[in-house]
Task: inverse folding
């Protein structure tokens, strides 16, 4: 019986040691803080932001360089009410729209509107937009269409815009 008791104690001791080792390893794996290291993931050079309506564009390009106005064309003569369309990157929008202004060469605002996204705007890719813009009837002559990045934060570093000349008739 003493032999049986000695063998049982021996196995209980081995099992106890194994539980302690497993407990220490579990603690090290899940609860010990990982060492601080500056790991950064750099995507391959050929990675690009997928575009929803046009070819892929690299993410290093500034947002305003990716805004495209398809209608009207630069320098076009337009009426006092016209439609503007094109594409802008998703971050240009907020709540699926961004502001548009028509200004004189002296900087006076003669028309405002909001471009509306025509597809999912919560993307980094290109999103088509359309807007109807009305210019005050008393103005005729050269003007500038300004497409403004919507910036609800109000932070100057988030401001961005593009401008295109037109003639109001």
Result:
């Amino acid at each position: 019986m003493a032999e049986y008791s000695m063998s049982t104690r021996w196995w209980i001791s081995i099992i106890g040691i194994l539980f302690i080792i497993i407990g220490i390893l579990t603690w090290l794996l899940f609860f010990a803080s990982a060492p601080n290291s500056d790991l950064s993931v750099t995507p391959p050079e050929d990675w690009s932001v997928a575009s929803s309506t046009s070819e892929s564009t690299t993410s290093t390009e500034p947002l305003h360089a990716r805004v495209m106005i398809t209608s009207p064309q630069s320098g076009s003569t337009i009426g006092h009410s016209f439609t503007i369309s094109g594409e802008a990157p998703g971050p240009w929008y907020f709540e699926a729209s961004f502001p548009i202004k028509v200004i004189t060469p002296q900087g006076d605002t003669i028309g405002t509107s909001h471009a509306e996204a025509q597809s999912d705007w919560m993307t980094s890719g290109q999103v088509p937009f359309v807007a109807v813009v009305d210019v005050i009837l008393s103005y005729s002559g050269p003007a500038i269409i300004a497409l403004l990045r919507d910036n609800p934060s109000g932070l100057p570093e988030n401001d961005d815009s593009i401008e295109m000349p037109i003639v109001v008739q």
Notes: Helices lie at 2-30. DSSP finds one helix and eight strands in the chain. The chain has two domains: 1-32, 63-168.
